[in-house]
Specification:
The chain is α/β, with parallel strands linked by helices. 41% of the residues lie in helices and 12% in strands. Helix 4 crosses helix 6, helix 7 runs parallel beside helix 8 and helix 12 (309-322) crosses helix 15 (357-368).
Length: 369
């Protein structure tokens, strides 16, 4: 496993880490022993395979992903770098809530000092304004001063202008951004552009000594779907594609099974390097996806009408690529159909990719109903 410096933090990390959002997506963040064991086993196996960087967050299962990471650490002699973060600013304007989250994460992870702590998903000017005006990043800065945290930063799906502003106006050690082989925006209004991330943001962050960790190497999982027409791409190569960018310190694919872990962890080995021809072939295959994609992150939820928005969006994308009539059977099994959408706009406000979700609900209903 290759290792790189995490900016100027003094920490070295494996170029391939592990993300724990997949635990929540797979329904593993439940309060039962089988679910806890499944999560702990995945983290433990990652450590055995040489992973020295783990990405988690309070938002992932309401802290249960953090608890699983803590349990795995307790049972291991390994000392990986752990990054965790808070999203509580989205529901509260009280800095004391953020301070309490930091202490709660230390307890769940079973550590006195957190390696990296970020404020989670500050992805629009409006969101950043709230954080600034209410001094919601200050408890994180203070925690670093008090020795509770070693390194601090932001995670964001924002555009280049917003990321530049965040870096200019704050004490930043580490930034987490989305980056993958899909060199296009997801929708016309989406500010996050992977091509600009690679050509503008990464070099700027590297020059400033800010560590770069990458999320979404599989585009929220969709790049690994087998939809025919050459759409499915090898997970290990997708991970390696990100690693090939020298500005990236580590990439953290989300795993919800041991098999997934075993498949893509080897992408961190030097002998997994991609040739220019390999990269060109991958990029050509990725073009089959086009743009305007749902990344299945789930941040659109909850829906006031209880529509399972990510599942509906997934069925729509699968239909667009395959026209498989069996998808109608899957749609029919949904408890709440797309036509229940009342266009309240709440999900669109939360979507970090600025997708026109209400329009897509109408489109899906027209297809399947």
């Amino acid at each position: 496993m290759e290792h790189r410096e995490l900016g100027k933090t003094g920490m070295q990390v494996s170029v391939v880490g592990i993300g724990t959002l997949g635990f929540a997506r797979a329904g593993l963040c439940k309060d039962d022993e089988a679910s806890r064991k499944a999560m702990v086993d995945i983290v433990s196996r990652a450590l055995e395979l040489g992973v020295t960087f783990i990405d988690t967050a309070l938002a992932y299962g309401g802290g249960r992903a953090e608890q699983a990471v803590g349990a795995a650490l307790k049972a291991s002699v390994a000392k990986p770098v752990i990054l965790t973060r808070t999203h509580s600013w989205q529901k509260s304007s009280d800095p004391a809530v953020i301070a309490a989250d930091i202490d709660a994460s230390r307890e769940r992870l079973g550590v006195d000092v957190l390696d990296v702590y970020e404020i989670h998903d500050v992805s629009s000017p409006k969101a950043y304004q709230k954080v600034r005006e209410n001094k919601l990043y200050e408890p994180i800065v203070q925690a670093k001063k008090e020795g509770k945290v070693k390194a601090i930063g932001y995670s964001s799906h924002g555009d280049a202008e917003l990321i530049q502003k965040i870096v200019d106006e704050n004490e930043i050690d580490v930034v987490t951004l989305a980056y993958n082989i899909l060199h296009s925006k997801r929708s016309p209004g989406d500010g996050e552009d992977p091509k600009i991330t690679a050509t503008k943001l990464f070099p700027m962050l590297k020059e400033r000594g800010i560590g770069i960790t990458v999320m979404k190497p599989f585009g929220g999982g969709i790049l690994t779907w087998n939809l025919g027409q050459g759409t499915a791409l090898p997970p290990a190569r997708l991970v390696r594609y990100v690693v090939e960018n020298p500005h990236v310190a580590t990439v953290t694919p989300g795993a919800d099974t041991l098999a997934q872990l075993e498949e893509w962890i080897p992408a961190g080995n030097a002998d997994a390097a991609l040739s220019p021809a390999d990269i060109q072939k991958l990029e050509e295959a990725a073009n089959n996806w086009g743009a305007n994609l749902c990344r299945q992150c789930g941040y659109c939820r909850p829906c006031s009408q209880e529509i399972d928005i990510p599942k509906v969006m997934r069925l729509l994308m699968q239909w667009q690529h395959t026209k498989d009539e069996k998808l109608r059977e899957q749609y029919a099994k949904l408890d709440v159909k797309a036509n229940a959408c009342v266009e309240c706009g709440d999900c669109e406000e939360r979507c970090p990719y600025d997708l026109a979700i209400a329009e897509k609900m109408k489109e899906t209903a027209a297809i399947f109903e």
